[in-house]
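Batch job 17 of 40 flagged for manual review because the log was empty.
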Amino acid sequence: MTPTTGPELLEATRYLDFQDEGIQTFVRRHVVGAEHPRDRAVALYYAVRDDIIYDPYSFSLDAATLTASHVLRAGKSFCVGKAVLLAAVGRAAGIPTRLGFADVRNHLTSPRLMALMQTDIFRFHGFVEFLLDNRWLKATPAFNRSLCEKAGIRALEFDGTQDSVFHPFDSTGKRHMEYLRYYEPRADLPVTELFETFVRHYPRLNAFISDGSGGNFEDEAIAGEAEELGR
């Protein structure tokens, strides 16, 4: 069981490899002048949310692509990779941090991604939990601001005092996100379980990876052209 607190939640791991010089530089740049852990967590949340592009087509069954250092260098990842990076920089800034996962029903996706996944249920959706003022707070950095603007939804905010999770409806009343199941928080990325779950539930995944054509999810998500599901 993942501990609720302890020194292991401040340590570097295989995937939260914050000893990487690029990550160290990223942290120093974004937390300068932020003395309180809450201020550091908030600054790092926005840096990862907006500097790293949400890209579901960057998924690979190569575990090395899910290290925090790789995600930072690539400048893009899907929700799990972005959560890994945020957890890593949080620990590098001295904040006890763990990874959270949930199965969610996403009511806003692109027709191409829907065809690939053949479902609107996104399994092992990734987010982060920071220990701030003796409370675990959820922070979800998945969707960058430019993507949200194109898709016509509000970017998710985080102030370090309350959970930052997706709302069931967007600002216009359309269905947005349903949390179906939460997993136990983890100290590091459970990559074997993650890959096994994806391969089992998304049968077209291997064909997509082999094709290697990728895509531009932001372009697919232009407001009014994204596929609205489950209404």
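Reviewer: the log was empty due to a logging misconfiguration, but the result itself is present. Confidence is low (pLDDT under 50) at residues 223-231. Unflagging and moving on to job 18.
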